[in-house]
């Protein structure tokens, strides 16, 4: 369970996130959607206690993130799959994290196996493809067998098989009562994975409702069309219209 | 304690650690021997003021750059890759990460540099013995100076960590640690001679290196007071680093 109340983040006079209030419930996959620069990553960093909100608050499983003694047992996060030391192996990367939260070494081996990195667990990550790094990032998130998962663009760089694997994984975690909060810009993928969506644009909440009702009420047939409609006023770099400008 | 184990795992598991340590250890011994050879070809006019220990420990002053840079890198490589966010999400109180890194650095550097400094002393003395300039480890204060060389380097690594944590940037941190260790002495050159002499002993590196001398001249503090001053500099930087780590967005 993630509860944000009036969450606001300003950098100087620029507002990255403005007065966000939403709840991410357990047992379902909640998609976190928004155009580039909408404030998705900033919001996730505030949930994890990495960035301090200018105003408002956010709790995870009933407490501010930083109040958890062994947070990896509560919350697993993937913010940036490339955030690994290129000279360190997946095994040591995960081992250090496990040690910092008092998790047994067996968890490291379990998650390495679970994400399919067993063959290259002791190789340096420097030459990994983005897809392999995403697998390591997901292993990192799963390490403490947490109740809540927060994943920022976990599908980037994955091949079709990888995407299907992550989709099945997220559905399975939700089915086992976990809270799954996942951002993506791939609407077709979110339409297949998410039960509920939180949509933001220019840092403000645009929608917080079930995926089915969002699409049904929009008058469109797909999440993609509904999304474009919802966020059309909040796009940072609007694409040129297809039949415009050639007058 | 768990955070310290985690930091030790991280420290051990990147190749740059081994390379930095290897270069530091080589520099300690190689420069000690080289400088002793130079002094043998140009023996002092008045041997009473000659500090045979200091000569054989000359490599410490070169190795301090490798050690200081290693201290910087231990934190700035996490900022460069973004790994710091994963680290701090795992340890949201944050400060234990800094203490863990400092403890690992100080312990490992001291443990590895002690035999290197000892080796530099022994080989330096054997070179100096050609001109009967050598000194034995049994002489007063000699053992303290040799152990002091390793202690000095351990603190240098922590200073690097402090500067890296404050600046969060590898190039900036490297420049800062070199500047911190070598810069102030150069600036005293612009001051009137008497004032420069008064200030010199209080500067970070000269204060810290007093512990590696057996015949401190009037320009240096006494060995342990000098080292205490050096520790105060390190403590000041670590406090600033802790504030920066705790207070600012990751």
From TrEMBL, chain A:
Keyword terms, alphabetized: ATP-binding, Nucleotide-binding, Transport
Family: Belongs to the ABC transporter superfamily.
Organism taxonomic ancestry: Bacteria, Bacillati, Actinomycetota, Actinomycetes, Micromonosporales
Annotated ranges, domain ABC transporter: 2-227
Signal sequence, renumbered to the chain: none
The name this protein goes by in its record: ABC transporter domain-containing protein
InterPro entries: AAA+_ATPase, ABC_transporter-like_ATP-bd, P-loop_NTPase
Zinc keyword on record: no
GO molecular function: ATP binding; ATP hydrolysis activity
Record keyword NADP present: no
UniProtKB/TrEMBL annotation, chain B:
Transmembrane parts of this sequence: 21-38, 58-77, 98-122, 142-167, 174-193, 224-243
Signal sequence range: none
Keyword presence, Transmembrane helix: yes
Keywords from the named record: Membrane, Transmembrane, Transmembrane helix
Transferase in keyword set: no
Protein known as: ABC transporter permease
């Amino acid at each position: 369970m993630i509860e944000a109340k009036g969450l606001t983040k300003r950098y100087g006079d620029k507002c990255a996130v403005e007065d966000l209030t939403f709840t991410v419930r357990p047992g379902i996959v909640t998609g976190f959607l928004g155009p580039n620069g909408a404030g998705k990553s900033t919001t996730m960093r505030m949930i994890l206690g990495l960035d301090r909100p200018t105003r408002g608050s956010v709790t995870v499983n009933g407490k501010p993130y930083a109040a958890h003694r062994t947070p990896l047992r509560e919350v697993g996060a993937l913010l940036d799959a490339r955030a690994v030391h290129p000279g360190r192996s997946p095994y040591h990367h995960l081992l250090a994290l496990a040690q910092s939260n008092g998790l047994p070494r067996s968890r490291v081996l379990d998650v390495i196996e679970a994400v399919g990195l067993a063959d290259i667990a002791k190789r340096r990550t420097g030459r990994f493809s983005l897809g392999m790094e995403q697998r390591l990032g997901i292993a990192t998130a799963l390490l403490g067998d947490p109740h809540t998962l927060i994943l920022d663009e976990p599908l980037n760089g994955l091949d079709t098989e990888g995407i299907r694997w992550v989709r099945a994984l997220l559905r399975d975690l939700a089915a086992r009562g976990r809270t799954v909060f996942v951002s993506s810009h791939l609407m077709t993928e979110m339409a297949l994975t998410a039960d509920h969506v939180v949509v933001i644009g220019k840092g403000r909440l645009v929608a917080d409702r079930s995926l089915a009702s969002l699409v049904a009420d929009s008058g469109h047939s797909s999440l993609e069309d509904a999304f474009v409609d919802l966020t059309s006023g909040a796009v940072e770099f609007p694409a040129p219209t297809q039949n415009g400008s050639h007058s | 304690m768990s955070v310290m184990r985690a930091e030790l795992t991280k420290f051990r598991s990147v190749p740059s650690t081994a390379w930095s340590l290897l270069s530091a250890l080589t520099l300690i011994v190689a420069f000690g021997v080289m400088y002793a050879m130079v002094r043998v070809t140009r023996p002092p006019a008045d041997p009473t003021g000659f500090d045979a220990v200091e000569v054989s420990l000359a490599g410490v002053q070169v190795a301090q750059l490798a050690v200081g840079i290693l201290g910087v890198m231990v934190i700035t490589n996490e900022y460069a890759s973004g790994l710091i966010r994963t680290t701090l999400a795992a340890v949201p109180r944050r400060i234990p990460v800094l203490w863990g890194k400092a403890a690992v650095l100080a312990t490992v550097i001291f443990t590895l540099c002690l035999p290197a400094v000892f080796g530099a002393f022994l080989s330096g003395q054997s070179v100096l013995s050609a001109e009967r300039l050598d000194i034995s480890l049994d002489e007063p204060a000699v053992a303290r100076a040799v152990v002091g060389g390793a202690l000095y380097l351990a603190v240098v690594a922590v200073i690097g960590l402090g500067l890296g944590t404050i600046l969060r940037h590898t190039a900036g941190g490297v420049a800062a640690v070199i500047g911190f260790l070598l810069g102030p002495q150069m600036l005293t050159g612009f001051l009137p001679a008497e004032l420069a002499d008064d200030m010199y002993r209080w500067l970070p590196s000269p204060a810290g290196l007093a512990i590696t001398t057996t015949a401190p001249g009037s320009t240096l503090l006494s060995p342990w007071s000098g080292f205490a001053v050096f520790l105060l500099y390190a403590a000041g930087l670590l406090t600033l680093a802790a504030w920066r780590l705790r207070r600012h967005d990751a």
